[in-house]
Specification:
By secondary structure, the chain is an all-beta fold. It folds into two domains: 70 residues, N-terminal domain of TfIIb; 209 residues, Sandwich (Jelly Rolls). The longest helix has 8 residues. The radius of gyration is 23 Å and the shape is globular.
Length: 310
């Protein structure tokens, strides 16, 4: 049983003091970890006091603190929009696909600012012109994550297009649509269109975290709501290459199905994120920023561990 666990830091060195009680056996240890950029943690253990022999004990520290510098979340990330701008173009913080804005304003989000798409009847949206061979023209494993706050009194009766590369004819790739007490992930493999539906029951005026995870090898798509899997549904064996623009917040081939709410922290990966990745993004409802440290290169601290023998 751990009686006390204290941690402090000075620059890149982290100090940990522990006093542990195993039955009637008392063990104390003082530990520090050197964590310099671009290096694996150096672990030093001092002042071990022992009363008798105790088997190996291990403690694992840390989880993702931001998207960019996390070894897994920063890998295969194609585009990430923090949506911090008050108006106008929303910059792609990770890639090169900036979003032009039509009427979209700003609101307090989960991390900093988010994007306000107005109320029912408004025609506000974000869009990027992307085509064949573009980094966002992903035909294999894909993950799309975002925070959404819906303002409709009855969220489940709304028809809101969220993030799409879709059209009424041809070049259909995917479409995320909230409608009829569920969330749809329309997808096309070049031969067949499939419309898997996930039954959800979100409340209005509440932030929720959504992740669609498409696994090409399994021909399945899963929806995670607040880091909990809703369950996998059948999808195609690939996503069709598309020349359609990326449209966020409305029906992509015209007007209608406008989002009545807010979005924040949108990310697209060309891989299937794991449940652990998604849990780290959700972070118990607080989310994590794209870049907490402002570094220019990803830093992989690995999984620092403290191991000692008595």
């Amino acid at each position: 049983m751990v009686k006390k666990f204290l941690i402090g830091s000075m620059k890149d060195r982290y100090y940990i003091g522990m006093m542990m009680l195993f039955g009637s056996l008392f063990v104390s240890a003082f530990v520090y970890l050197d964590m310099h950029p671009y290096q694996e943690p150096e672990i030093q253990i001092n002042d071990i006091q022992e009363n008798t022999n105790i088997s190996q004990t291990e403690i694992t520290l840390g989880s993702a603190t931001d998207v960019k510098n996390d070894a897994s979340l920063g890998s295969n990330l194609v585009s990430y929009w923090e949506l911090e701008e008050a108006s106008g173009t929303r910059v792609d913080s990770h890639g090169s696909t900036d979003l032009t804005s039509t009427g979209v304003t700003s609101v307090t989000g989960v991390q900093g600012n988010g994007a306000d798409f107005g109320t029912a009847g408004n025609t506000y949206w974000l869009q990027a012109s992307v085509g064949y061979g573009d980094p966002l023209d992903i035909t294999g494993d894909t993950t799309i994550c975002f925070w959404m706050y819906h303002k409709d009194a009855d969220v489940n009766s709304s028809n809101d297009d969220i993030i799409n590369r879709y059209g009424s004819s041809g070049d259909v790739q995917y479409r995320t649509l909230m409608s009829d007490n569920g969330f749809y992930f329309f997808n096309h493999d070049g031969t067949t269109q499939r419309t898997p539906r996930f039954s959800i029951n979100p409340s209005s005026n509440t932030w929720y975290h959504y992740c669609f995870v498409y696994d090409a090898s399994a021909s399945q798509v899963n929806l995670y709501l607040n880091a909990s899997s809703i369950g996998a549904q059948t999808a195609g064996s690939s996503l069709r290459s598309s020349n359609k623009p990326l449209v966020i917040g409305r029906w992509p081939d015209g007007t209608g199905n406008n989002l009545n709410g807010y979005l924040d922290e949108i990310g697209i990966w060309d891989k299937a994120l794991s449940g652990t990745d998604i849990s780290n993004l959700y972070n118990s409802g607080s989310g994590i920023p794209y870049d907490a440290g402002g570094g220019s290169e990803p830093i992989n601290y690995g999984s620092p561990k403290i191991i000692w023998f008595q």
